[in-house]
Design goal:
By secondary structure, this protein is of the alpha+beta class. It is 40% helix and 30% strand. A hairpin with a 2-residue loop joins strand 3 and strand 4. It comes from Leekyejoonella antrihumi.
Length: 140
C-alpha cells in the first residue's frame, strides 16, 4: 500500500514512471524535513547537493535574483543532485513554513547505480525538460 509520501513522489515527473519498489527505495534514501517560516531550505551557489520535493506549505524559489512561486509537488535541486555542482536556485520557507522531502546525492547515487530503471526515468525526464527549454529559446 502506497504511503502519502510515495503517492506525492509518484505525482512528479521525475518519479512518475517508477515501480513501487523503486519509489520505496527513494523514500528510504531520503527524509521529510519541516522548515520554519522565513528560513532557507536551499541557497543558490551553496556547494551542498540533493533534491528537495515540496510537499506542503508556503515557499518561494529564486534564481539569479528572480523570484517565482512554486506548487506542491514541485522539486528543486535535481541538477546539483546529479552533477554535484553548486545550487542554481534558492528555496525559502514562506510565512507558513514548508515541508519538503530531501534526497541527498550521497544517498541517491547508490540507489541510482543499483537500479537502472531509476536512471532511465531520470534521463528521460531531464531530456524532456531540456527540449522544452530549447523550444522556448528558439521561439524567442
Amino acid at each position: 500500500m502506497a504511503t502519502p509520501l510515495i503517492r506525492a513522489l509518484r505525482r512528479i515527473d521525475l518519479f512518475s514512471t517508477l515501480s513501487d519498489e523503486a519509489t520505496e527505495l527513494i523514500v528510504g534514501s531520503g527524509a521529510t524535513i519541516s522548515t520554519p517560516p522565513g528560513a532557507a531550505v536551499i541557497t543558490e551557489g551553496a556547494p551542498d547537493s540533493g533534491l528537495r520535493v515540496v510537499l506542503e506549505g508556503s515557499r518561494s524559489v529564486s534564481a539569479g535574483g528572480n523570484g517565482r512561486g512554486t506548487v506542491d509537488g514541485e522539486y528543486v535541486g535535481e541538477l546539483s543532485m546529479i552533477d554535484g555542482e553548486p545550487r542554481s536556485a534558492s528555496l525559502a520557507a514562506g510565512p507558513e513554513g514548508v515541508t519538503t522531502f530531501a534526497l541527498p546525492s550521497m544517498a541517491f547515487a547508490p540507489t541510482l547505480m543499483g537500479h537502472p530503471e531509476i536512471a532511465e526515468a531520470l534521463l528521460k525526464t531531464l531530456c524532456l525538460r531540456l527540449r522544452k527549454v530549447e523550444a522556448a529559446t528558439v521561439g524567442h
